[in-house]
Amino acid sequence: MDLKERIEKLEAELNALKELPASGLEAFRIAYAGKKGHLKQLYEELKDVPNEMKKEVGQSINGLRMLVDEKIASWKDHESSDSAKERIDSSRPGHSSATGSIHPITLVKEEIIDIFSRIGFSLSEGPEIEDDWHNFSALNFPPEHPARDMQDTFFVGKDEALRTHTSSVQVRVMEGSQPPIRTISPGRVFRNEAISSRSHCMFHQIEGLYIDKGVSFADLKQTLLYFAKEFLGEKTDIRLRPSYFPFTEPSAEVDVYWGLETETDYRITKGTGWLEIMGCGMVDPEVLKNCNIDPEVYSGFAFGMGIERIAMLRYQIPDIRMFFENDVRFLNQFRTL
Ligand code: PHE
Question: Which of 165, 171, 251 most suits a substitution to test ligand 1, by most atoms within 8 Å of the C-beta?
């Protein structure tokens, strides 16, 4: 290739070069304007060009040099205003942006809400600071009942306390509407208890309430069986054991059959295979009366469960305190995205 052709080729290359090559500005400068660069080489060869052509060839090399200088100047500007490090290199792997995870309590709560909403239960919520009436009196707790004691309840005023269960929300729903009522109330509750791996002074409950004409204990049992099967699988069985709550009569504790396959199963079910997951019962006629619902016309059932306990079973979480420590190593295990 003769000198003229090479000059033209370099010129075309330079004109096609719109952006600084990936090798960087200094590499470009050395290649074109360095001691052993293209320009130096061309000027060197200019010496051997016949005199009658020197002027023309010399001018085109000068043109080339100006082009190189222009490129260097414009990329330098660019580089100093937008430092080399920040320049976008679209071939580099991107930064993954940190996404949050959904708290296991929320995951379990949403799932339980979803299961009950499929059979017509609506959602209700109420205040965490409650008065004596909604948390205790309306629910048939006698004035000297131990649950009102300083041992169990955090009082925040003369007549106000942090609610000890979400049954208080159900009182509010009953007071504010007439049957049929089908509602579930999730929320945070507080009890003045020693903190350990199994109990905390703050936890979450979901309580359910169904009031209509002719609601029976059989309806309660079928509703809970439906829930257990949806939540734990089609083969799940439940059993009800007699119990006591001031606001339900009769009352029961609900166990689900967990199985006895592993050592952990033995430990958490105390060797029986059964696990207690909630309390329930038929709403006491006195409670209906307290909430202006006629117990001669209507009857209903209620149930309540602790979300932490259910989440601990579902995810095999050994210590209830883990839910409230906000340790990302724990929380990140519940990524759902
Ligand atoms: N409120 C009860 C508790 O906190 C649970 C419960 C709700 C029991 C409804 C029976 C009916 O332990």
Answer: 165
